[in-house]
Amino acid sequence: MISVSYQKTIGATPEQLFTTLTDHHNLHQLFNAKFDVVKEQNSNEPKGGKGCVRQVSILGVSFLEEIIAATPQEIRYRVINNFPVKHHLGVISFQAQHHATTVNYTIKCQSPWYLPSFVLRKLLSNDIRKCLAKLGAMYDLR
User: Fold this and answer.
1) Which of 17, 50, 93, 113 to pair with 102, CA 20 to 30 A apart?
2) Which of 51, 62, 3, 55 is nearest to 24 (CA)?
3) pLDDT at residue 132 above 80?
């Protein structure tokens, strides 16, 4: 099992960051991937929240992710059908600080047989680090 985790303090409220990260149509600004919503969130959930399913296209591969929990304190999502990785869980948590928020982003998954774990760990590390840097830059400009 691979586990990758990064933390960054960003000059925004947890609510602002939650809204940005559940705006699936604009996530391409933070990740090197395309996101298309294929199922909207469950009723009585925030926009882009629990129950939302998005198709992610990256490096010529497309797969589905489902938001399994979404509050201004935490977003949890998983890859559906164990493809391209198995037993995937992404957790993004928000802890309010003085005029800022500490974001903890963790991904746990199992590498498929054809992709060495160290390669997948490096890819995930780069993606999370770049995402948090871009997210921070979005709010540092304000």
Assistant:
1) 50
2) 55
3) yes
CA distance 7 to 62: 27
User: H or E element: which one contains 71?
Assistant: strand 61-71
Which strand (E) or helix (H) includes residue 3? strand 2-10
The pair of structure tokens assigned to 71 is 């509050």
Report CA dihedral (103, 50, 19, 89) to the nearest 10 degrees.
30
Full-model pTM? 0.94
* Alpha-carbon gap, residue 127 to 89, rounded angstroms: 15
Q: Does the pLDDT value for residue 142 go beyond 60?
A: no
Residues 4 and 106: beta-carbon distance below 8 Å:
yes
* Residues 50/69, Cβ–Cβ less than 8 Å: yes
Axis crossing angle, helix 14-21 with helix 117-140, rounded to the nearest 10: 120
